[in-house]
Amino acid sequence: xxxxxxxxxxxxxxxxxxxxxxxxxxxxxxxxxxxxxxxxxxxxxxxxxxxxxxxxxxxxxxxxxxxxxxxxxxxxxxxxxxxxxxxxxxxxxxxxxxxxxxxxxxxxxxxxxxxxxxxxxxxxxxxxxxxxxxxxxxxxxxxxxxxxxxxxxxxxxxxxxxxxxxxxxxxxxxxxxxxxxxxxxxxxxxxxxxxxxxxxxxxxxxxxxxxxxxxxxxxxxxxxxxxxxxxxxxxxxxxxxxxxxxxxxxxxxxxxxxxxxxxxxxxxxxxxxxxxxxxxxxxxxxxxxxxxxxxxxxxxxxxxxxxxxxxxxxxxxxxxxxxxxxxxxxxxxxxxxxxxxxxxxxxxxxxxxxxxxxxxxxxxxxxxxxxxxxxxxxxxxxxxxxxxxxxxxxxxxxxxxxxxxxxxxxxxxxxxxxxxxxxxxxxxxxxxxxxxxxxxxxxxxxxxxxxxxxxxxxxxxxxxxxxxxxxxxxxxxxxxxxxxxxxxxxxx
Length: 492
Ligand SMILES: [Zn+2]
Description:
alpha+beta, Protein Transport Mog1p, Chain A, 7-stranded antiparallel beta sheet, 4-stranded antiparallel beta sheet, 39% helix, globular, binds zinc ion
């Protein structure tokens, strides 16, 4: 959303809800049916050369950085780059154009694209507690690349779907959704097998040890990720993109036990210097980039709000907000657009495969708007749609509602009501909302985890405070230890 709207202000919208798989499937059906321009590169991809591997990885990587944003130029990013660059140089594939990025993403995740493009998220960094733990994660991701997991084991179906990225589809707008929903790029790293994960864990351990990181810290990474997935919260992304090979902690401990004691001397942990990089870092989703309050979506930076239909699933993506009806018969998308409202609607309805029914121009809640109803031809038949473009604060937004014909009588009006609820935000509390941030506390006396959360209250649940600090309520923490408190971020 942000890039087409705003150059200075970032209009990033944070992932709010969970699965968009079925929306993806709906879109995929649109996409496959309308492949007037054949999916590019599929045949070549079946014999992936190194240069193709690099090209695929680079495109996916640039796409992620553009969509999600990176914490460029920060000391935290510098550490990710420093660890990764050294490790990659000592790996089996030192000559790849390795890149290491720190994504400004609340998801607890790390991933690798083919060709040597490695990503760690802000969410992951705030959950780790030392440079050695971070090195273990980066080493694991480097392992996926050096062992060519992402390329060698790709199925033909995955390759076909990857080909969707950037392919010309009946509607460039719909092509963008494929992008938004990660239908293409995420598959590059989506499913590593159990054996791949075991091998990458072992490689991460080996690379860490080679670079003199204290591998005795490695079980903590898997413990933290395990605690996250065991809780009430959503499963960390790293867990979903990296199927757990089972007993990761145990296997890490076995590796440590099998390492000659002499090799475990003089290794680096760098706990305090690592934690200091996190001081003031945003924790969790950043509400400045848009957030949900019930069914209402509020965007403080872009100063608009919209009420989605009750009971719909919503996903708050970097460049769009997406909602889907409970029966999956309809979906609603909000994203940025270029041009006046009338131009946006005209351009949309002139796309191949779209039949314009009615169009008009008016205003919605005092904002200039244009709209058109249309039919979109797909392999499965016709889909009914309504597109509304609205101008607000020197930006134009496009709202798109799609429904299966059998559902249009019910979902059509529901979606139009939601689309017409787009209005400026005037509440100062919303406009000035701030994210939660990490605040470092150096303990002046020994205390338990429970005493810590009582003495230094956080704006997140105590259980979560324990997890991000790698402690329990009963853990005795020594005086002088640095722990993370999370402050602020209360949503109006
Ligand atoms: Zn992995």
